[in-house]
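Hi there. Long-time user, first ticket. I'm pasting a complex I've been working with (about 646 residues overall). I'd like to know whether the download I got is complete or cut off, because the file seemed smaller than I expected. Thanks.
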Amino acid sequence: MVAVRVAENLNAALHGLLDDDPTAYVLGEDVLDPYGGAFKITKGLSTRFPDRVITTPISEGALTGVAAGLALTGNTAVAEIMFGDFAALAFDQLCNFAAKSVSMYGSRLPLRMVVRCPTGGGRGYGPTHSQSLQKHFVGMPGLALYEMSPFHDNREVLAAMVDRGEPCLFFEDKILYTRPTGLSDPLFRVRRDGDLAVVDPDVPELAARPDCVIVAPGGTAHRALGAMRSLLLEEEVSCRLLVPSRLYPLDVEALLPYLGGVVLVAEEGTAGGTWGSEVAHLVHQRVWDRLRGPVRLVCSRASVIPTAAHLEREVLIDESAIHRAVREALRG
Amino acid sequence: MTETLTPAPAPATRPARLSRLADDDLALLLLIRHFERELLRLYGAGELNGTTHTCLGQEHVPVALRPLLGPGDFVFSNHRGHGHYLARFGDAHGLLAEIMGREGAVCAGVGGSQHLHRDRYLSTGVQGESLPVAAGVALHLRRTEPGALACVYIGDGTWGEGAVYEALNLAALWDLPLLVVVENNGIAQSTPTGAQLAGTVAGRAAAFGIGHHLVASADVNEIRPALEPLVARVRRGRPMVVEFRVHRLGPHSKGDDTRPPEAVRAAREHDWYARYAHDHPDHFQPLDARARALVEDVVAEVSARPPSRWSPCA
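Hi, the file is complete. Here it is re-exported in full:
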């Protein structure tokens, strides 16, 4: 049996949301059939729900504001930013309106609002269509960040974001769209503990005492898994992978039972002011005395993301970078 | 080639005689006037935290609109919004408590002067930001409560923001019941409109096929009947820009007026307050005294209240 691809799972999740919630809207650029969105995630939605799937002009600020207006009047609004890079054009609406409105009027004003951001590189789209902008939104009160993962059902994640009652950004690594959901590598097994996906070697003795724990958001998980496979087979190093669905605010307490002495955070964002440094700080505060050394950060280089494939590969994080970082961490 | 149209200068002649207002309209105008004056006094005395933007000279705009907007309509206000709030709710106590951070504040003292939310009224301090939100609200209203509208107050300076144009485009495309009220006071903080706005507001509305109506009068009895059919059209999904030519009497916020004396003098000559006192002294004086006393009572009562309470992470 062929596993469902992540894009299909997300598309089904949006169908499900519009089915289950009569106040739900999906809006964005080019989201209507037959086009169905630049990445085809909204395919079929406008045919089934013509009144609640709305195509917008190329106006990321306005479409995010419209989503906030719909949420303000009691609706559930899902906005698509065609390339997550363009969320920069909606920064004011997100930061100064939506995130503030939840609390700046003295009492809580719930907004059911999700802004979807197809994110990341590896497809040769160049410097302004390949970024992972998560770090720019970390630490904004009233704005929650989630990332799509092959180990989290998108219908559940959408429900969690909507139920949160505050604006959420949903980062969807574009590379994941065409990948299968779930775990296909027989060397490992995945289990869920609440929001957290925990991936361990399938051998119980190795799973019980991992040499290194890797924390990665959904879009980097398959690269971490690739590194874990080569580390296990070539170097007999066992790793555990932790994939939270919500990146911010991070439930660090949920991570703690799964951490060991060596911890590494892997993410695609470019170096400097990263999500990983936030994770590292939270982990240091709680379990510094249990660590063999500081949490290691692996990310893309502090650079624009080039278009040419050979240059793009030099900048973006890949499984060999994670492999190397784990080896270095274990050498101490 | 770009053609720059200079907005028509204010008429040099003394404005026409004002008609006699209904008691409630005059009382509301005076309430706003004395409220704003008291605020500037309180700031001067060091009684208030932060800043404020008074609508002195612009009070007639929300007063003229008041009966044209119903409780089902949304109002989006801006940084200069005390008059908008008072015209909608008449709640001087809650507003002053908000500005002073006292118990009974509309938003617990968190939002302050320029971030208010109550029922279907919401203000925010970033220029142009509320227009796309209002478009979303208008979309909701058009679908679920036909006949209701979203009204957004903006200034002449707001037209520098791209969000305005993105939202006007949507309003026209989607037939939204969106009423944009422009309080064109001829100055954006310290920058004269002629130095920051090419063309005209009317021309910009026309570019989207959106109707534009210019109000030069400060006479509520003249303004209101002219607006009534236009507002009714907005309710049927024809967005509209109504531009009021107004005169900002006071500073942008407090103590930051760098206009030449003649500009301030010209603004004063158009002030409805002095004009109405002149044209209708018998009507004006008792209501003016009453509004002054009322605001003094509000200040005394609210000042004596304990600080507002709020928990940052609730």
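A couple of notes from our side: The longest strand of chain B covers residues 178-184. Residues 1-11 of chain B have pLDDT under 50 and may be disordered.
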